[in-house]
Amino acid sequence: MKDEILSNLNNPGQLERLYRADKPTFKRAFKALYPELKDNALLTFWNERINFASEDISWGSRKDLIVILVASLVAGGIAKLPVLLSIDEEYFYTRNIGFIIFPVLTAYFAWKNKLSMGKLFFIAISILAAIFFINFLPDVKRSDTLDLACIHVVLFLWSILGFAFVGETGNADEKRLNYLRYNGDLIVMTTLILIAGGIMTGLTIGLFKLIGFEIEKLYFDYFGIFGLSAAPIIGTYLTQTNPQLVGKVSPVIAKIFSPLVVVMLVIYLVAIVYSGKDPYNDREFLLLFNALLVGVMAIIFFSVAETSKTTKSQMEIWILFLLSAITIVVNGIALSAILFRISEWGITPNRTAVLGSNVLILIHLLLVTAQLFRVLSRKTTIASVGKTTAFYLPVYALWTIIVTFLFPVLFGFK
């Protein structure tokens, strides 16, 4: 979007079309460009327009609200399928938890971005294939490949959502980076909605209890499950129509947590030496170690997405560089531990999945860290870090396909 704005600085009509086609992305790109181009009279006008418009909360058109209401009801209806169709709840939710939200959000972005019939067909076939595959896997009490497929099918659906989010045209890397920002903003907004919903739930149940009505089961069976299903959909709608709502919160969170995570990781690595525990011989510790790695990696990529949009501060880039470098050390420990376990006890689906994930994460971290070092050396700009982060995302999508659809077959559904 930045390149499109720059190429149309003297074309007010085209700027207007860009703005109306994708307001949130236009606003983010414009706010990143404006400090460098303040002398442009047209951009000064646009700056006043965007900032003025952001003072009010937009609820969108009536059509938009109807779409969100229908989407929320559909998600809640999917969540209630075990009751409606007498399906075992554990069986249903372990395999289908991702299908409650992701297909609905994917349909929303496909509608907003006016995707071509070809892309709509690809999305529909991908989701249907995932539904049939995951639900027709053998129902056994203990299956590593089933557990891995159930986990990775959620990540696969997240990738399909990203495909719909990127849409038809424009800079794919920038839109993928915007997708990471959207995820961070959605987490913030959905958390706020859930907190508000929790407070309302407590008040409602308490008030009815005062007059002698026990409504907990009825409330959670219907209002609760529909509310939980609707929260990320409403959060998505609010972040897309009102990017200013969390536009300043997310960068603050990134700035606060990045240095704190650096300190935590350093202390944690030192504490491991004195704890007597190690990921080489303790399987549970290795699993927690990898969970820590994935969480820190997510913080890095979210922080990179926010930093590339809002700041060029050397201190923040140094913090991101240190965080990435330390995470490479953590990844190296986890990778060596899984290789040790494979050499000692052989190949299993879990060990193969963890090995593949760690290798992919390590490559990505090395690429991002190298770009951060080049930024610190003034050989490139922070935008290159964002592009490096974004272009690698399809690799993770490919890996989710392999683990979800091929691992059960390759390992004999064990």
TrEMBL record:
The keyword Transmembrane helix applies. It comes from the Bacteria. Keywords: Membrane, Transmembrane, Transmembrane helix. Signal peptide: none annotated. The chain crosses the membrane at residues 65-85, 92-111, 117-137, 149-166, 186-208, 220-240, 252-273, 285-305, 317-340, 352-373, 393-413. This is DUF4153 domain-containing protein. It comes from Larkinella punicea.
